Amino acid sequence: MSHRDGYNRRDVPSRRFAKRRAVVAVGPGVRLLTPGDVRKLARRLGVRPSKRLGQNFVVEAGTVRRIAALAELQAEDVVLEVGPGLGSLTLALLEGGAGQVVAVEIDPVLAAELPRTVADRAPELAGRLSVIAADALRIAGPDLPATPTALVANLPYNVAVPVVLHLLAVLPSLERGLVMVQAEVADRMCAGPGSRVYGAPSAKLAWFAAARPAGPVPRSVFWPVPNVDSRLVAFTRRDPPESAAGREDVFAVIDAAFRQRRKTLRAALAGWAGSAAEAERLLRAAGLDPGARGEALDVSQFARLAAARQPEPRTI
After folding, report:
1. Do 220 and 265 sit in the same domain of this protein?
2. SS3 of residue 81 by DSSP
3. Least CB-packed of 82, 238, 270, 299 within 10 Å?
4. d(CA 91, CA 145)
5. Residues in contact with 310: Cβ distance below 8 Å, sequence separation at least 6, in sequence order
6. Is residue 161 part of a domain?
7. Domain ends where: 203, 219, 237?
């Protein structure tokens, strides 16, 4: 399968990412997996890509090398990879200079095989890999052998956004990420207020990080070939908006606003507030238009609205 050289430059607005995107520090003695290697390995293990687990394996070496380059890995980085599968991207991350790679794989057969694959194809770097057989939606910091600084992953399509949000919530050490997701999901993750695809995933991700498109990935580089296109999304952690409300309270109002996204906030938030009249009162207290829709609010405005519902502190 061929690699389309060069991602769309308009999809990489960060000058820092664009400047270094083609640089890969090649590690010693790494043999990346070819399409034939991937199929042979899958046959030996009796593995068939699972739709239930959202498995589409990357089989093109140029693609995983490009991802490793875009991730701008440093020797001090501990990279968290979710869903490593047969190891195509894992090998490229080690080759690209990651100090450590912690791979979290839900499939026990794949998790057991990955250390052997790396030992065979990158023996001098195999000590940098740790593999955890677990569901990424259930892990937390104490489950990992090292403290991750970056998330780099080809995420299963069916759980991509929940995985990113969960990991950002439970792993405050994650400073940045580069994830491959379905193109439509990527658009939602990067959308801002006013966009037709802006929604709850956009606003929730914005609580944790600034997200940006980092390039398309052709479907031809996957096995099996998916019915959808993919994109890379890069994000950098930032401080959440200042608010008297906590994250769970802010996310609750975001969910309520987008549950009935075509309704005005006064109507959409009636259940959350207790009544439409109370929703209007809270919206006005937060300086927001009750006739607006959820897609018009950024995460800081949702935080302000959630704070308006907080009880006044008691004074003695």
Report:
1. no
2. strand
3. 238
4. 19
5. 244, 245, 249
6. yes
7. 237
